[in-house]
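Re: weekly structure request thread

Next one in the queue (190 aa):
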Amino acid sequence: MKLLKRFWRRMKSPSKAAAGLLLFMGFIGGLLFWGGFNTGMEATNSEAFCSGCHAPIVKEIRETIHYSNRSGVRAICSDCHVPHNWTDKIVRKVQASKELVAFAMGTIDTEEKFRERRGYLANREWHRLKNNDSQECRNCHNFEYMDFSEQGPRSVRQHSTALASGEKTCVDCHKGIAHRLPDMKGVEGW
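Done, posted below.
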C-alpha cells in the first residue's frame, strides 16, 4: 500500500525529468505512428496490392501504352486512380475502403463476379474523374505542355476545342484508354 501511495504522490507532482520523458515518448510514438501510416499508404498504392482484388484489370493494362511505350514511362494503378496531393489522396483512400469491404464480403471475389460488376465500377470511377476534372490524368498530361504539332489532326481538333471550351475533361473522350471498355448493359445511366 505504501508503494502505491508513493507512486500516486509522484504521479500527482511529476518531476521535470518525468515530464520530459513523457514528451519524448509522445514524440517517438508520433513518429512511429506517422511512419507506419505512410508506409501503409504507400503499400496500398502498389500494383501488387491492387491486383489482389482487380487482377483482371492489372493483366489488361499490361497491353496498353500506359504500361509499355517508347519513352519507358510506366503508369501503375495508383497513378490514375489515386490523387497525388495528400488531402485528396486521404479522401480517395477512405472511399476505396468500401471496395475492400465489398471484396471481403464476396461481391467481387471471383473473376466472374468482378466482370458482372465491372460496368458499375467503371461508371462510378468515370463520374469521380469527371467531377474532379480528371485530376489524376493531369498529373502527367497537361494541355499547356502538349505539342499539338506532334498530334494527328483529329486529336488537335479535339484537344484545342476541349482547351478552349473548358467543358470537357479527359475521361469524356478517353474512356477505355488504359482498360477495355466494360459491358455497360444494366448500368444505370447507360
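The first helix runs from residue 2 to 12. The chain is about 65% helix and 0% strand.
Next request, please.
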